[in-house]
Amino acid sequence: MGQGRDRTVKRTIIIYSLTVAVGAFLLQWLEYRYAVHVFSTEIYIVLIALLFTALGVWVGRRIAARPRGSFDKNVRAIDYLGISEREYEVLELLAKGHSNREIGEQLFVSPNTVKTHLAHLYDKLEVARRTQAVDRARALGMIP
Amino acid sequence: MGQGRDRTVKRTIIIYSLTVAVGAFLLQWLEYRYAVHVFSTEIYIVLIALLFTALGVWVGRRIAARPRGSFDKNVRAIDYLGISEREYEVLELLAKGHSNREIGEQLFVSPNTVKTHLAHLYDKLEVARRTQAVDRARALGMIP
DNA sequence: TGGCACATCCCCCGAACGGGTGAATCTCTC
DNA sequence: GAGAGATTCACCCGTTCGGGGGATGTGCCA
């Protein structure tokens, strides 16, 4: 579930390194081209600081911004409430707004079975309605 | 809705500025204390680059990480679909898992009125069920 | 001033949902 | 091998939802 994220981080690192390389090359080139420091050391330091701060901000944002669609399933809550595999599958389809009949069709069971799973879910989540179950499960981070 | 966020950004900027000031002071002090550059310029540049990159990453992460509970309501989607004030209020309570009767009580209207608003919401969101309406509204960023 | 959007309410009816009870498998564990 | 838990299904009954109408009042604006 974190594959896309890993790729993003890798690409971020690559772009960062490339930018550093290009920056170093530019500095060398400036020194070579004009043989001397054009500006005073302080200005160079400030420029470099600014540049790398900007770069750092960019990197930090990319690292912190979790890609759309990613989601850390709160397994602890699921375990703590003792929600079974099948019940979780029903919960997922429930959150997508499917009816009991549709859920049953997708899981290859009868609507009655779906109702039983739902009843267990309502018990464990301590709710009375399907909409409440979705809301609560989402609040607990069990579903995206 | 973004007050806590503004405070976080402000504090981030303040801490950043303070760090820069302290860093500048340290450099000055080093130069003053030892009269000369202890290391070569390249190493200084690398150190500064690393320091400010780290600082930038920290700043970027703080900026990008939206505090828990914050949420940008997608007003464009709401406007585009022509969802009225009252309908949105119903939608909010709907997403919390309330029944029509409960929604009516909280909005001081009859369940029949709630049903009418819901019917309009179903039309505008192009869905058939309340759970679907919640799912779609969430997908469109209209509700948290 | 007549249409338009909005909000409010009513009734009816079929479908969906929720609660309760019971029961048959199957798997894992003690 | 007994018991616990998970999964599957059935039936009944009452509540809730959803869709179809129709109705009234208000405010806006062309």
Structure write-up:
2 copies of one chain form a homodimer. Chain A has 144 residues and is mainly alpha-helical. Chain A folds into 2 domains: 3-64; 75-139, Orthogonal Bundle (Arc Repressor Mutant, subunit A), CATH 1.10.10.10. Chain A contains 7 helices and no strands. Chain A is rod-shaped, with a radius of gyration of 27 Å. Chain A starts with a helix and ends in a 5-residue tail after the last helix. The A-B interface holds A 20, 27, 41, 44-45, 48-50, 52-65, 94-99, 127, 129-136 and B 20, 27, 41, 44-45, 48-50, 52-65, 94-99, 127, 129-136. Chain A binds a DNA duplex (30 and 30 nucleotides) through residues 82, 84-87, 99-101, 109-113, 115-120, 122, 128-130.
CATH superfamily of the largest domain in chain A: Winged helix-like DNA-binding domain superfamily/Winged helix DNA-binding domain
Class by alpha and beta content of chain A: mainly alpha
From the N-terminal CA to the C-terminal CA of chain A, the straight-line distance is: 12 Å
Shape of chain A: rod-shaped
Radius of gyration of chain A: 27 Å
Which stretches of chain A of 5+ consecutive residues score pLDDT under 50? none
Strand content of chain A: under 5%
